[in-house]
Design goal:
heterodimer, A: mainly alpha, Rna Polymerase Sigma Factor, Chain: A, Arc Repressor Mutant, subunit A, 3% strand, B: mainly alpha, 6% strand
Chain lengths: 184, 84
């Protein structure tokens, strides 16, 4: 039954699919297929476990289905709305489990941040960066993750955090200044 | 710098590949959970009110027919006869 729906609606636009999903949840299937991996990766970057990431991803799509009637297209991509739900679900998970939040970084990420913070890179920098990350609050960590670990544009960051693009730039630059002071 | 660690930081953790993630894809489970969550209780369904309405009409019809029967048994005119 579901496959029939999928075949019928794959050619329709995303906007149309969202409108159709408001009336019949089965029309949500192509949107789920399209964004599942993206949301899963987004969640997994902030988690330690694949199963937990899967549970949270399911919860994100379930919440999206429940609240899709309230979704209004305002020019912001649909996936940004899903990311916002994912951020709330991840925060809820850490609140409920009372666990330490997970951050995943690579050497390349550290090097990129150090370069943008205009600090000379050396082999001690990774340890300093880890120590500095532990002093930042959740929003600052989220900004770093979005900008440096996931390489998102300021426009995307702004739509995910529901702020203006210039505000996103200011926040990231202030954060780099803060890190510069910590890393020197 | 404070000694307390707020976050668990992993460095260079391998990413799962698309096939691994695909295994966790299950739209049917999402949709069935959604159905359970958004299921209307019986007393809020239109069908329930329609069924109650039908039952009431049926009871009224039975009541009327019983009334007619009793009137016939007593030999009383059921309705006013139009004069010829």
């Amino acid at each position: 039954m579901l496959s029939v729906f999928k075949k019928k609606i794959t050619t329709q636009s995303e906007k149309k699919l969202i409108e159709l999903s408001k009336r019949d949840s089965r029309y949500f299937a192509p949107l789920y297929e399209k964004y599942h991996e993206q949301i899963f990766r987004f969640v997994y970057k902030r988690m330690n476990d694949l199963d937990d990431s899967s549970d949270i991803t399911s919860q994100v799509f379930l919440k999206a289905l429940v609240h899709i009637k309230n979704y209004k297209h305002t020019g912001v991509p649909f996936v940004a709305w899903l990311y916002r739900i994912a951020i709330n679900e991840i925060n809820q998970y850490y609140r409920d489990k009372k666990k330490k939040r997970t951050i995943n970084i690579s050497h390349v990420d550290v090097r990129n941040i150090v370069n943008d913070a205009e600090v000379k890179y050396n082999f001690e920098m990774q340890d300093k960066m880890i120590a500095s990350l532990n002093e930042l609050d959740d929003l600052k960590i989220l900004l770093l993750e979005l900008r440096y670990f996931e390489k998102r544009s300021f426009k995307e960051i702004a739509s995910i955090l529901n702020i203006t693009e210039s505000n996103a730039k200011i926040k990231v630059y202030r954060l780099l200044e803060e890190l510069q002071k910590k890393l020197i | 710098m404070s000694e307390e660690k707020k976050y668990e930081i992993n460095v260079n953790r391998p990413e799962p590949d698309s096939a691994d993630i695909k295994k966790y894809e299950n739209f049917n489970s999402v949709i069935s959970k959604h159905r359970d969550m958004t299921k209307r209780p019986v007393y809020k369904r239109k069908r329930t009110y329609f069924a109650i309405f039908l039952i009431l009409i049926l009871i009224y019809i039975i009541y009327l027919s019983e009334k007619e029967k009793k009137a016939e048994e007593k030999g009383l005119p059921q309705t006013e006869q139009t004069p010829k």
